[in-house]
Amino acid sequence: MTPAAPGFADGRSRRARIWSLGLVSALLALCCCGLSAVPAAAAAPPKLEARAWALIDARTGETLAGRAQKRRLPMASTTKMMTAYLAIRDLPPRMMVKAAPYQPIPGESLMGLEAGQKVSVRDLLYGLILLSGNDAAVTLAVADSGSVDSFVNKMNRTARRLGLKDTHYRDPVGLDGAAQYSSAHDLTKLGRALMQIPRFRPIASARSAKLNSYSPPVEIESTNDFVLDNEWAKGIKTGHTFGAGYVLASDGRRKATELIGAVMGTASEAARDGESVRLLDYGFSLYTKRVPIRPGTKVARVPVRYSDDDLGLVSRRPVRIGVRKGERLVTRFLVPDQVTGPIRKGAPVGRAVTTLDGERIAVVRLVAARRVAEPTLLEKARSRLPVALASLAVLLSVIIGLYLVLRRHQSKEMQKRLERLPRRQG
Fold it and tell me: Fewest C-beta in 10 Å: which of 29, 48, 159, 184?
């Protein structure tokens, strides 16, 4: 069974899409060439045509730029971000469920499910995100809560719990309606919560997927051209209805930095994707990639007892972080004052803690860069010799000091005796 082609909610004419994106990319490249000499600190946020947009740092949640961020607007199929959030939290990926009956209106995006068809939750999630399948959304809703209405109530409760103050759901799909809205700020906030779920990240960034619960398995391709056309893109979800226009919640990773953006209400797919690229490009321009720890590079040294050599310490994994102007990156090494063999190469010896403006961002284990043999008796004796000699020198100094004090005392006593003797008369 082959999934149906997506319709108006997220569909596109591929040739026209490629031509449009090519033109947009060429114009952007020319603009970037002209602005390449401008310092990052002097860059201003782009002027976008979207009705509302927002950009945040995925690590901290800090807002980097935006316009009309809390304006309540139709969100189209970005509604499915909450559908995915609840399904991936509540349902095991290998769980097999029966496809719920669904009567689409013409042009809807569908996964191509037939009522009663058995399909895994894992495949439904890929169909939900890559194909924006409305039938997948309804099936997940029923599997999660027993009915669409119960699931929508859970969606709204979860929105309140996550602090999405400008979001309300009417269905798990994203059709236009007065009670179905969100804001650019809330989309970035929900996107951040989603991307913090390890099971969701590979789904959001997938260019294609194999639906193994189909017989035979079916290969599908993402309808998200932002992900398909940008190597650094990691998700998240497209959307389009007549009321919402074109919407995109985006995620990208460059310069050891992850950013999440949202544009709402653009006039075309090309504008939606082009403005999202411009928005994230601006965000990445604010960061410089720093690598305080590289794998295999000695970052600390520890004295080895009974030896004149130090032991170098390395990390097996790197620490990479994007740093903005004015932020302070510090790495502290928590290692012993001294080590004693035997120590095998690769044995854990300490830790390195990296902080950015006082916030801990990475802790890596430090291991021995080489083998340290067990000290021999001769090495132990040699190491003790200086201590013994020093102790002997101190003892000799004390003895000599006592001797000199005693001699001085005896000299004074003799002098007193001589003074007491009667002097002879001449």
Answer: 29
Interaxial angle between packed helices 80-90 and 148-161, expressed in degrees from 0 to 180 and rounded to the nearest 10: 90
CATH of the domain at 312: 2.60.410.10
pLDDT of residue 7: 37
Place of tokens 């004796």: 381
Catalytic residues: 77, 80, 132
CA angle 187, 188, 190 (to 5 degrees): 65
Note whether 71 and 52 are within 8 A (CB): yes
172 inside domain: yes
Residue in 310, 285, 309, 288 with CA at minimum distance from that of residue 299? 310
CB atoms within 10 A of CB 5: 11
**Which amino acid is it at 311?**
L
Total structural domains within the chain: 2
* Residue 377 main-chain phi, psi, to 5 deg: -60, -40
d(CA 173, CA 193): 19
Where the chain has pLDDT below 70, the residues are 1-42, 379-380, 383-390, 421-426
Residue 385: the pLDDT is 61
Give the residue from 417, 188, 142, 412 showing the smallest Cα distance to 283.
Answer: 188
The closest alpha carbon to 137, from 174, 107, 187, belongs to 174
